[in-house]
Specification:
Structural class: alpha/beta
CATH architecture of the largest domain: 3-Layer(aba) Sandwich
Helix content: 25-40%
Mean pLDDT: 95
Oligomer: single chain
Number of domains: 3
Strand content: 25-35%
CATH superfamily of the largest domain: Response regulator
Number of strands: 23
Shape: globular
CATH class of the largest domain: Alpha Beta
């Protein structure tokens, strides 16, 4: 511990992005700035009171009387890859600030664990390797998204690696508090961490990863929680971002124990074996849009159509018009709502003004696999706000910048058209634009999980069989670099548990 009347001193920073190697979307600096991008004192000033990891670390430090030294904090959401110059800018900014730090008791970094750039499949590993080279004797704690791909380079260059325990992600604040508390215990000599990773040759779609209620992932979460006892201080399970074509991809458990490798290995094995036994329960059924809409018309009440293959939170473009085309073809008189990211269409609508009837191409611009824009005759209802504040999830309290936006109607469908793509944690974007989704017959959502609790009272929820880089049909994607066999790409994959404690590896 560094002596000082203000308690321990910890450097804190965040650099998060979730990559998808099957998506053509290249994220730029503007994509990070549209979520949050702060440096130095701004990090603490602007993230205090939010649901972010850094918000949690701030609260933890204030309770314990610690001093935080802020670095940079930013979240780029998700996309295909981050452009090389933007990735280099942020990594260099973080590392330069760490190099200039006075002596500290520890460093806490909030990373995603799936940061992919134009020139690297493992930006998170690069960050940690550079930080470790600068501070070889300083304790380093890292928190990651539940969908992190924990590489050897990541594991070998930190002392503590924990992760979100919930999906949907509503415990980022708690994760930040937990990471800083463990770092404090290590710096104070109360935790001598043995960190062990166990990986399975298994990836699963997101739809059944919910950790609340019943279901296979809730059972895994409960088991992991029950094993945090005695020397086992933390168990993080990472379902992994399944749309990264990278070596070593697979479901991963990371256990942190106090000076007890055997206890860590036993806990990791038990979680991994339980996950393997449940692997078939994670597979999901999808329906072609026409069949899903026909079934919804018979159901009555609010029907949720999950266009999960165009999930912005998984790296897709958010501009697919496939579900809109199906609604116009098969339920033109049914009130519906959909959100499409299309800066060109938003600009045209705003230029025409409220009440104008315009013909325009809508959506299908950022990802060529969706085909040409959908030609529609639309009426401009109104301009929509260029931002909204997230009410929940890992961005709670953060303002998302949607850019110039408008609400259009085509037939009975209300369409929120925004310049920037944004992830859905609930219905904040619709509500900010004056759209009441619960008054509709159909609502199209573009996420695989959050809608399940945001629209919990819906009459029906259906996963659409649509094109896109975040499809739940993982076997349909052109994987090349992953290790094989890998379930469900290879249905007869044998069970194999690969263990690693930083630099020592073995397989059973």
């Amino acid at each position: 511990m560094i002596d000082g009347e203000d308690g321990m001193r910890f450097a804190v920073g965040a650099l998060l992005f979730e990559g998808n190697t099957f998506s053509p979307v290249i994220a730029t600096r503007a994509d990070f700035a549209s979520k949050y991008l702060f440096a130095d004192a701004q990090v603490l000033d602007r993230l205090r009171g939010t649901g972010t990891e850094i918000g949690g670390a701030i609260d933890e430090a204030e309770v314990a009387g610690d001093v935080l030294l802020p670095l940079i904090a930013t979240h780029g959401g998700a996309g295909g890859r981050v452009e090389a110059r933007t990735s280099a800018e942020f990594v260099d900014a973080l590392v330069t600030r760490i190099a200039a730090l006075p002596p500290v008791d520890g460093i806490y970094l909030a990373l995603h664990g799936a940061f992919v750039s134009e020139d690297s499949l493992d930006v998170d590993g690069e960050i940690l390797a550079r930080v470790r080279a600068l501070r070889p004797d300083t304790p380093i704690a890292v928190s990651c998204d539940l969908h992190a791909h924990v590489t050897d380079r990541m594991l070998d260059n930190c002392d503590i690696l924990t992760g979100y325990r919930h999906y949907p992600h509503d415990d980022t604040h708690e994760t930040g508090r937990r990471a800083l508390a463990m770092l404090r215990d290590m710096a104070g000599g109360r935790l001598k961490p043995v960190m062990l990773r166990c990986r399975l040759p298994l990836i699963v779609p997101a739809q059944k990863q919910r950790t609340r209620g019943d279901g296979p992932m809730a059972e895994i979460r409960a088991l992991a929680q029950s094993l945090i006892t005695g020397p086992v201080r933390d168990i993080a399970h990472f379902c992994v971002q399944p749309w990264i074509d990278a070596p070593g991809l697979g479901f991963t458990t990371v256990v942190t124990a106090h000076a007890d490798e055997a206890a860590a290995a036993d806990a990791a094995r038990r979680v991994a074996e339980a996950m393997w036994e449940r692997r078939h329960r994670f597979l999901v059924e999808t329906l072609p849009p026409a069949r899903a809409i026909a079934a919804g018309l018979e159901t009555g009440g609010l029907v949720i159509l999950a266009d999960a293959a165009d999930c912005v939170g998984g790296g897709a473009s958010g501009d697919s018009a496939a579900a809109l085309a199906a609604l116009l073809a098969h339920a033109p008189e049914s009130p519906a709502a959909i959100h499409i990211a299309d800066a060109t269409a938003a600009t045209a609508a705003l230029s025409a003004g409220p009440g104008a009837q315009i013909r325009l191409g809508l959506g299908n611009r950022r990802d060529p696999s969706y085909g040409p824009p959908l030609e529609v005759e639309a009426r401009v209802l109104r301009a929509a706000p260029d931002s909204f504040v997230y009410a929940g999830g890992l961005m709670r309290g953060v303002r998302a910048q949607t850019g110039p936006s408008a609400v259009l109607t085509v037939g009975a469908v209300e369409i929120l058209v925004t310049s920037n793509a944004c992830y859905e944690y609930a219905d904040e974007a619709f509500v900010a634009a004056g759209i009441d989704p619960r008054s509709k017959a159909f609502v199209v959502v573009k996420n695989p999980m959050n809608y399940q609790q945001a629209y919990a009272g819906a009459a029906a929820m259906t996963i659409l069989d649509t094109p896109g880089p975040t499809t739940p049909n993982l076997a349909a994607l052109p994987f090349r670099a992953v290790g094989r066999p890998l379930f469900p790409l290879d249905p007869n994959t044998p069970r194999s548990l690969a263990f690693r404690t930083r630099t020592r590896a073995w397989t059973t």
